[in-house]
Amino acid sequence: MSVSVSGLVSGLDTDSIIAQLLNVQQQPIVKLQRREADYQVKLSAYGSLQSSLSSLQAAMEGLGETSDFGAFTATSGDTDLFEASASASATPGSHEIKVTQLAASHKLKSSGFSSSENTGEGTIHLKVGSGGTVDIAVSATDTINDVAQAINDAEAGVKAAVIYDGSDYFLTLAADDTGEDNVINLTVTDTGDGNNTDTNGLSRLVYDQGNTENLTQTQAAANSIITVDGVPNVNRASNTIDDVITGVTIDLKSDSDTDTATLTVSRDTAAVVSKINAFVSAYNEVLNFFSKYQSYDQETGTAGLFFGDGTTSSIRNRLRNMIAGTVPDVASFDRLEDLGVSLNGGGQLEVDSSILNGALDDHFDDVVQFFTQSDAGSEGFAVRMEDTLDAMLDSTNGTIAAKTDGIQKSIDDIQDQVERVERRISSWETRTRAEFQALELLLAEYQATSSYLDQQLVGLGNLNSYISKT
User: Fold this and answer.
1) Each residue of 144-191: pLDDT tens digit?
2) What is the average pLDDT across 29-54?
3) CATH number of the structural domain 107-219
């Protein structure tokens, strides 16, 4: 902390003098800080450019591989009968589907119980189809509700519920999985009366198909049955069938003895159009950046931040050349505009949907090749664009990184200069205040000497007066 001397002896406003001198000393700092602010604005603007280019890069990643064009759609002619979806392994075409029978899960019900009636003591042995047997203990005091809860807690592939009809309570069982092989098998060890198959005690719940059936079957376990392109009796355990037509999943909704519906598999060109539109939007965002930062208003003489900037001009030219460039060895197209994607009068990319859809419908494979071919020297549009953007955005050696690293180095250098100037000013202030302090002390000594001499002269004058009178 500096010491204020305040000109107590000299009468000078030394604090004001030093403050004014400091203001002069700090002018280089002000200039440096202005330069730093300019660099910070450029650094932020390059961050915006990097973000826009990254969005463009992400859009191109959806067009650079053959698999990016592999989407298919599957359409049902009657969604009341079935719905369908397709994966990339599907093949375009149509198929006639008849749903003869839906797959069903096995369902059983017990005879009626009262709400407080004990079911009987023992162990339930429960299994579904070829699965393992699950043992469920039942105590002598358990009711039908307790048994239902115990079955659900066992997670044996069966859901239990208790239905009240207004008079009695009925245990219902439903297999989790459909299919004719998923039959519920329930046997017991009845420790109450020792008889494991009669209709008393716990054995009232036995269902051993073809043998003891004390429970009533309310729905038989069944496979789905469909006819595909005239091939009858296609059986599956589920109503979701994904292994009959390659790459197509059929979800059965209802059956019919007579109705047939057409399943149509086609390329999902809408997905490709969406990706191309996403690329166009991302590219136009980059163009908007250049329009803002590389503009020049001749009337006002106002230039954008990057007007005349070599790096941004290079990036802009490279992208422009990409749009106008050709892709060799593609039979139907060699330019992006051949697909209906071109620059309009305002300098923005736009899509002619009729041309693009026509290209996709009539020359789909050529469209794929135009974007994705990877032969050296004749790379597809998306492949070349991705390579160009990678070179611009590489975090170590990319065009943007090189420029922003240089700007950041300039900012760091300015901050170092500011610190050096501030240290020099601080030393100057300390030294100057010390010099003013020394001046005040010297003036104080002179003042004290002057006062002493004045007193001596007065004394001599008084002495002379006294002598002359005597």
Assistant:
1) 999 999 999 999 999 999 999 999 999 999 999 999 999 999 999 999
2) 87
3) 2.60.40
Q: Is the pTM of this model over 0.85?
A: no
CA distance 398 to 400: 6
Summarize pLDDT for 49-90 with one digit per residue, the tens. 999 999 999 999 999 998 889 899 999 999 999 999 999 899
Measured in whole angstroms, the distance separating CA 457 from the mean position of its chain's CA atoms is 96
The overall longest dimension of the chain from CA atoms, in Å, is: 164
Token pair in block for residue 140:
């002598």
Amino acid at 212: T
Interstrand relation of 122-128 and 296-297 (parallel, antiparallel or unpaired): unpaired
- Residues 42 and 293: their CA atoms lie apart, in Å, by 10
434 closest CA partner among 1, 12, 2: 2
User: Edge-to-edge, what's the strand order for the sheet holding 134-138?
Assistant: 134-138, 122-128, 184-190
Kindly list the domain boundaries of the chain, sorted by start residue: 30-67+270-401, 72-103+223-267, 107-219
Beta bridge mates, 104:
222
Helix (H) or strand (E) holding 287: helix 269-293
Q: Count the helix, strand and coil residues of the chain and give each as a percent rounded to the nearest 5.
A: 45, 20, 35
Q: Give Cα separations from 274 to 63, 122, 269, 360 (angstroms).
A: 11, 64, 9, 12
